[in-house]
Structure formats: structure tokens, C-alpha cells
Design goal:
By secondary structure, this protein is of the alpha/beta class. Helices cover 46% and strands 11% of the residues.
């Protein structure tokens, strides 16, 4: 709403003058200061000539005295001594502390649970949306929901921790180019077709995804990865069903025949039954005596030390990015087709980035 001020100028009620107007006042203020031989100008005369209020001129004068210059609007907002941020007007420091304490107690807690327990402890009643904005906007990192890693409690047994320390010491002495990692993965159609769709904005319906008939088929992948630029970054085999110890041993032998695993390589594996049980009880001795390949066993419950776990995660993400019309053009085994297409395009740079994620100080 526009109106006339006391000096007969048109102004907009509730709207502050812009930065250009402040500079205009500063220029007139210093001109009056020179004319008055450095004596303070007449504030009333300045306000009348500029068509602004005396309060506005005094505000500019105060900024010049305090800061030696006029402030930008963003600086004024930052320096303003008033509560800011989500819940600033409804929560005090105690309320914020309680919310953080509730988070540390149970990171998967729902917003309604935060609301209920905050009221119980402090008597403050706020909306769930305010709590959500508190976690999303009040910290340098947005504390949104993410899918966590599931960590078995026996990972932290003293003997397992000791083995992990010993493993890291051994790996740090090895040449990364000679170290290759292997593992197996079970693959289902849900890994490929379980993707988000946008709700229909006109009807509100959620569209269905038409899948291939082998949607419920299960496939097994045996894979090995390495950063030796003289070999492929990956060797893998995909087949129906599940892996056995005998098939895993054959896959290792095939990787050797295909010149992926070379004499002098160190193959890092976990302690899965297929790797250490049944026919593979003598796998370690067999590889060393026949092919001069050393097996290094991962610590118990330590997938974070195996870069091929990141290969599998990346594979699923890239599979879900393949357009559905491409998948529907494949009559059978589209899941295996998509996995093979992604793994064949995995580069040395990809594998090296996975190595660096697992061992940040190992590779320069």
C-alpha cells in the first residue's frame, strides 16, 4: 500500500528503502559534512531534501559511525540480534538439546515420537514439520533419512577388532596393483525393476511397471576386480540359481586362464562357506602351489574393506537407470542382461575410486 510520508514523498508501507537509496543519503550526508566544516549535518534538513524520515538518516549515520560504511541488507539480517532458524521462535536451547539427545538415543525415531517426548521432557509443543526443518536446515549437513548399513554386533568382539587391525597393517604393506578382490552376489528382478515412479498429477494414481516374465528369477554373480591396467578391471560370471563351493573354485580357475588373476597376485576374499568350506578347504594351498597366487582373508564382518561391495552397489544403481523400454526389448533374462551390460562398462577409474573409498591412504 503506497502513501505519502511527512516530506510529501510517495512510499510503500512496510517496505524498506533499497541499498541505492542508502548510498544517496550517504552522499548527501558527506556533502553537508564538508559544507559544515566537519560539523554534524542538520538531520531534519537532510531528511526533507531527500524525502526520507529523520529516523532513516540517523540509521545511516549510526552505520557510518559503527562500521565506517553502510551495510548491505543481507549483513543487517545476519547481525540482527534475534532468534533465527527452524523453531527459533518456539524452541530454546534446552529443546534443541533434547531433540539431539533423542536422536542419539534412536536415529530411526519418527517425527511424531520426537514431538511426543519433547513435550514430555520440556513441555514445549511444536509441529512435526518444525522438527523436520530443524534437522534439515539447522546444521551444516542436512540430517535427512538415509538407508543405513546393518552391522552385526559380533563385529565388535575384541578378537574380530584385533584381526581387523592386523589385516589393515598387512594390506598397507602390499602393492595395490597386485591386490585383487573377489566376492559373490545374489541378484533378483526387484534389484532392476524396484524404482520410483511419479504419481499421476491429474488422477493421483501410481502407474504400474510392466516387467518381464523372469521378474522373480534369481541369478548369482561371481566377480573379481583389480586396478592393474594390464588386465581388465573386472572378471565376472552370471548364471541362474545360487553359487556352490565347486562353482566358485571353477570361477577362480577360469579367471586365471583368462589372464585376469596372474602369478604374484594377492586375492582378497571373505570367510563365506563357499570360500573356505567343502571342496575349498585346500583352496589356499592349491592356488599358491599351482599358480603362485596368495589368498588374504578379510576380517570377520568387514565388507567395508572389500571394494567389490561398492561394485555391486554401483551396478544396481546403474541397472535402475537403464530405460524400461530397453529392458522390455529383451525377451528373457533381462536382469542378467542388464547386470552384464553394466559390469562390462565398469572402468579402471571406477574400480580405483572404489579402492580409494575402502583404503583412503593406500593409493596415491
Amino acid at each position: 500500500m503506497t502513501q505519502k510520508n511527512n516530506n510529501g514523498r510517495v512510499c510503500c508501507q512496510g517496505k524498506a528503502y533499497g541499498f541505492e537509496k542508502k548510498l544517496q543519503v550517504v552522499s548527501a550526508y558527506f556533502d553537508a559534512l564538508r559544507i559544515n566544516n566537519d560539523s554534524r549535518p542538520n538531520i531534519k534538513s537532510l531528511s526533507e531534501s531527500l524525502g526520507v524520515s529523520r529516523k532513516f538518516v540517523r540509521k545511516i549515520e549510526e552505520e557510518l559511525i559503527t562500521h565506517g560504511r553502510v551495510l548491505q541488507p543481507s549483513e543487517i539480517l545476519t547481525n540482527r540480534d534475534c532468534p533465527r532458524g527452524p523453531g527459533a521462535n518456539t524452541m530454546d536451547h534446552l529443546d534443541q538439546f533434547v531433540l539431539l539427545r533423542l536422536y542419539l538415543e534412536e536415529p530411526s525415531r519418527s517425527l511424531s515420537s520426537y514431538k511426543q517426548w519433547l513435550f514430555y521432557f520440556t513441555g514445549t509443543e511444536i509441529s512435526t514439520s518444525t522438527i523436520s526443518r530443524f534437522f534439515l536446515d539447522s546444521f551444516p549437513i542436512k540430517a535427512g533419512f538415509r538407508r543405513p548399513n546393518l552391522v552385526p554386533v559380533d563385529k565388535f568382539r575384541p578378537q574380530n577388532l584385533q584381526k581387523a587391525v592386523e589385516y589393515v597393517k598387512v594390506v598397507s604393506t602390499l602393492c595395490p596393483v597386485r591386490v585383487k578382490f573377489g566376492d559373490e552376489k545374489s541378484l533378483k528382478g526387484a534389484d532392476l525393476f524396484n524404482r520410483l515412479v511419479r504419481r499421476n498429477p491429474l488422477t493421483g494414481e501410481i502407474p504400474n511397471i510392466t516387467t518381464n516374465p523372469d521378474f522373480r528369477n534369481t541369478y548369482a554373480i561371481t566377480g573379481f576386480c583389480g586396478i592393474n591396467r594390464n588386465t581388465n578391471p573386472m572378471w565376472f560370471r552370471i548364471h541362474n540359481g545360487t553359487n556352490t563351493a565347486e562353482e566358485f573354485a571353477k570361477d577362480i580357475e577360469t579367471a586365471i586362464l583368462m589372464k585376469f588373476l596372474l602369478p604374484g597376485d594377492i586375492l582378497v576374499l571373505d570367510n563365506a562357506p563357499n570360500h573356505v568350506g567343502k571342496e575349498n578347504k585346500v583352496l589356499e594351498d592349491w592356488l599358491w602351489e599351482r599358480f603362485a597366487i596368495i589368498i588374504l582373508w578379510l576380517p570377520t564382518r568387514a565388507p567395508e574393506f572389500n571394494p567389490i561391495e561398492l561394485v555391486w552397489n554401483t551396478m544396481v544403481q546403474r541397472m535402475q537407470a537403464i530405460p524400461l523400454h530397453v529392458l522390455k526389448s529383451v525377451n528373457r533374462d533381462c536382469v542378467a542382461y542388464a547386470a552384464a551390460m553394466v559390469l562390462e562398462k565398469m572402468s579402471h577409474d571406477d574400480i580405483e575410486s572404489f579402492y580409494k573409498s575402502c583404503y583412503p591412504n593406500w593409493i596415491n
